[in-house]
Specification:
CATH topology of the largest domain: Rossmann fold
Number of helices: 9
Largest sheet: 6 strands, parallel
CATH architecture of the largest domain: 3-Layer(aba) Sandwich
CATH class of the largest domain: Alpha Beta
Number of strands: 8
Distance between the termini: 15 Å
Length: 226
């Protein structure tokens, strides 16, 4: 009797896990700082905050105490500029092409669950060079809730006619692992992503931590043989 695969689906966070979007987001922030006659920030200072979204980046550049009116005005400009530069430098993380090819060859469905808004997520995914299209894309505004709430991951599984118990969720932020664990998936913490300076992935209680994308395949092999 042939044992059925334990893992039928792999879901990825987008920024900092599937794709390295940091350079385009950092360029957008520094462009806005330049417009406001402020000095640019070093890329190394911006990178750890990329997964936290536009508001966090704007506060990093313009100060945590920025007023709501100014924040909203800058956010509008930020999103407009970024939307026109989604994939200037954005690429899959090293090794991710081979991971997706591995999934395709074994008929394991893959998709994206991100907090990035749909207006940015879907164009970025369309422009990104991939071995195959994602089976599903869930954005931050697809549902009422977003990560760390488990609803987006559970919804993705239902849409793919699978269950969380046969799914792996991979992300580079604490909220990703919390969402995956609450949903009932296996979880991998992507240490190659945008980990905050004071972040401690060892405390996230993921099933495993991976230093690069190539380590995803061995973990899938372990789980599919267990």
């Amino acid at each position: 009797m042939i044992k059925k695969k334990s893992i039928a689906t792999v879901l990825f966070d987008l920024d900092g896990t599937l794709a390295d979007t940091a350079q385009d987001l950092a360029f957008t922030l520094n462009r806005l700082l330049q417009e406001q006659h402020q000095p640019p920030l070093p890329f190394a200072q911006i990178r750890p905050h990329v997964s936290n979204g536009a508001n966090a980046l704007i506060k990093l550049g313009f100060g945590q105490n920025i007023c709501t009116t100014e924040l909203n005005a800058i956010r509008t400009r930020f999103l407009e500029f970024y939307a026109n530069n989604l994939t200037t430098h954005t690429r899959l993380f090293p090794g991710m092409w081979d991971v997706i090819t591995y999934l395709d060859n074994r008929h394991i469905k893959w998709g994206v669950v991100t907090n990035k808004p749909r207006a940015l997520t879907e164009p970025l995914m369309a422009e990104l060079t991939l071995p195959s299209p994602a089976a599903i894309i869930i954005s931050g505004d697809t549902l009422k809730y977003k990560k760390p709430h488990p609803a987006p991951i559970i919804y993705a599984c239902k849409q793919l006619n699978t269950t969380p118990s046969k799914t792996v969720y991979i992300g580079d932020a604490h909220r990703d692992i919390v969402a995956g664990r609450r949903a009932g998936t296996k979880t991998l913490a992507a240490l190659f992503g945008y980990i905050e300076v004071d972040g401690d992935p060892a405390q996230w209680h993921a099933d495993a931590m991976i230093k690069d994308a190539s380590e995803i395949i061995p973990w899938l092999n372990v789980w599919n043989l267990s």
